Amino acid sequence: MYLSSTGSFGDPPSVTATTSDTRHSPSRSELASPFGSGETAEGIGDAALVSHLPPDPVYGRNGRQIDLGGLKAVDYIAKWNSLARAGDKNAAYNVYQATSLCANNDEPVPDYNSAAELAQFLTERKKIAAVCEGVNAAQLQERLSFLALAARAGKVEAQIDYFIEGPYGRTIDLEKSADDPVVQQWKAEAVTQLKAAAGQGEPFALALLAQVYEAGELLPRDAKLSLAYKVAEADARNSVLSVEQLRRNVGTQMSDADFANALQTGKQIANACCKSR
Questions:
Q1: What is the C-alpha to C-alpha distance for residues 23 and 25, in angstroms, rounded to an integer?
Q2: What is the pLDDT of residues 17-64, one digit of tens each?
Q3: Distance, CA of 266 to CA of 41 (rounded, Å)
Q4: 161 confidence band (pLDDT: 50, 70, 90)
Q5: How far is CA 151 from CA 70, 98, 189, 267, in A?
Q6: How far apart, in whole angstroms, are the C-alpha atoms of residue 76 and residue 1?
Q7: With 0-12 CB in 10 A as exposed, 13-18 as middle and 19+ as buried, what is 142?
Q8: Cross-referenced InterPro entries, in alphabetical order (predicted)?
Q9: Please, what sign has the CA dihedral across residues 84, 162, 16, 120?
Q10: pLDDT higher for 64 or 16?
């Protein structure tokens, strides 16, 4: 949920969460987890839902897959809680993931094109509510602390999610909240964490940095750096972007010298972060 000054989000990554630092390469077009408000589907009893819970893995708020090992979220959290509080980055991320599954599950229902799609959404959300039974508000709030712990300890997935979650784990207007100390601290650390993930060759982090420098919300707008990170992202994904494509799509406002410099910077970023993977 990439935050903008209008309070809107971009697309989060959709990858498999594990207890190791496995790298992933989601695209920015992948969809968010379809959790919204707490309304229920008609004609489905709670007892039936418990026996028809979504098969593992399920999807968290960030769109990542979560393997709860057949447990309810509250039991999965209890399983990892002690290690997480002791500073284990993987355990902390596991707790975050489980609580993220349950966070913001009472958001307004999004618009759907058909009654069938809406019914499916409501059914799935009620199943998630059954999985999340027993998870309390304090645990949902604390998920951001566990996320920060994992990110600062170098967990790549957590470094990206720290940026995606935003300062409060919900939609917020960054421009209107510019004087909020929590927002100010998050802005500084979010960029640091994103660059740390990019430094480990994570393509999605490189893509998000290109977006950050293009938008100019967390950092001053810089078209050359935005282009450089686009070049590095393509390299990390083993994709080929022709000079003509880049010039046509993102380099039209640059001088020839600035464009050439941006391409060279992108290659340097890619060589530093991605060639040793």
A1: 7
A2: 333 333 333 333 332 322 223 333 333 333 333 334 445 567 776 778
A3: 49
A4: very high
A5: 26, 16, 10, 26
A6: 25
A7: middle
A8: TPR-like_helical_dom_sf
A9: positive
A10: 64
- Give every CB contact of residue 134 below 8 A, 6+ residues apart in sequence: 72, 73, 74
CA distance 202 to 196: 9
**Residues 233, 157: one domain?**
no
Average pLDDT, the chain: 78
Helix, strand, or coil here: 58? strand
Q: Is residue 6 part of a domain?
A: yes
Helix locations, the chain, DSSP H: 46-50, 73-85, 89-102, 115-131, 137-152, 156-165, 181-199, 203-215, 223-236, 243-249, 256-273
**Residue pointed to by tokens 């959404």:** 121
Closest CA to 76 of 53, 93, 61: 93
| pLDDT score of 2 more than 50 | no
Work out how many domains the chain is built from and give that number.
2
Q: Are residues 117 and 226 in the same domain?
A: no
Find the angle CA(34)-CA(194)-CA(183) to the nearest 5 degrees. 75
Task: Quick: pLDDT tens for 205-242.
Answer: 999 999 999 988 888 999 999 999 999 999 899 887 88
Same domain, 27 and 124: yes
Alpha carbons 175 and 190: distance in angstroms, whole number: 16
Cβ neighbours, 10 Å, residue 155: 25
In the DSSP assignment, the letter for residue 16 is: B
**What range defines the domain where residue 239 resides?**
201-277
